[in-house]
Write a structure and sequence with these properties.
Oligomer: single chain
Number of helices: 3
Largest sheet: none
Distance between the termini: 29 Å
Structural class: mainly alpha
Order of helices and strands: HHH
Strand content: under 5%
C-alpha cells in the first residue's frame, strides 16, 4: 500500500505536489473564511490531517447547504471530481477536470 493510501487505493492528493496542495488549502481557507479561521489549516503544501479536515468541511457544506450528491464516498476528505469542481467554480476556472484529474486552477 502506498503512503497516503485509503483502503488500498492511492489518491492523487496523497503525496501530491506541494504547489497543488497549497493551492487547495488556500482555496478552501478562502471559501470557508466566514465559517472557520483557516478551515484547511496553514497553507504549507502538506496534505495532512488539517487539510483533510478542511476538505471534509467543504464537502459537508456542499452536501448540507447546496444539496450536492457526493456519490458513494460522501464526505471523505478526498479531493475528487465534485470537490475539484466546487473549488474551480469558486475561483472562476473551468469546471471540468482534466483527463488526469488535476485541478484547473
Amino acid at each position: 500500500m502506498k503512503e497516503g493510501a485509503v483502503d488500498g487505493l492511492y489518491h492523487k492528493y496523497a503525496g501530491a505536489d506541494a504547489k497543488e496542495v497549497a493551492s487547495v488549502q488556500g482555496h478552501i481557507n478562502r471559501m470557508l473564511a466566514e465559517f472557520f479561521d483557516q478551515a484547511a489549516g496553514e497553507v504549507d503544501g502538506w496534505f495532512g490531517e488539517n487539510t483533510k479536515q478542511g476538505v471534509e468541511r467543504l464537502q459537508r457544506l456542499m452536501q448540507d447547504e447546496q444539496g450536492a450528491d457526493l456519490g458513494a464516498g460522501g464526505v471523505d476528505g478526498i479531493v475528487g471530481p465534485m470537490t475539484r469542481k466546487a473549488i474551480n467554480n469558486s475561483c472562476g476556472a473551468g469546471t471540468e477536470p482534466t483527463d488526469t484529474g488535476d485541478l484547473v486552477l
